[in-house]
Amino acid sequence: MKHLVxxxxxxxxLFSICEAAPFLICxxxxxxxxxxxxxxxxxxxxxxxxxxxxxxxxGVMLHxxxxxxxxxxxxxxxxxxxxTDPWGGGGCSATSPFSSTRxxxxxxxxxxxxxxxxxx
Length: 120
Fold this sequence. Notes:
mainly beta; elongated; 3-stranded antiparallel sheet; disordered N terminus
């Protein structure tokens, strides 16, 4: 029984780590507008990948996992899309650009110097 509890705790901890990756998101499309069914995401001018629309309170949004992106500066483009219907309706929006920087793990500013107490 003790082993079962430890395995369960390990699995729950692993699941929470997997869900902690950074995500590329957008504002929620309110239910009063046409809801995209998926998004097309491109990283650094590469091929577009499909990302399902993420259902949330009030509508849908982009929620694309970017945890595996390499260290460096990156440019993204995103398009909101509708599945094409038999009559040729649907398609994708214009692109929305975004850029971000992924820093190396453990990188950060240098340690502070001159640490002391002050009366002010």
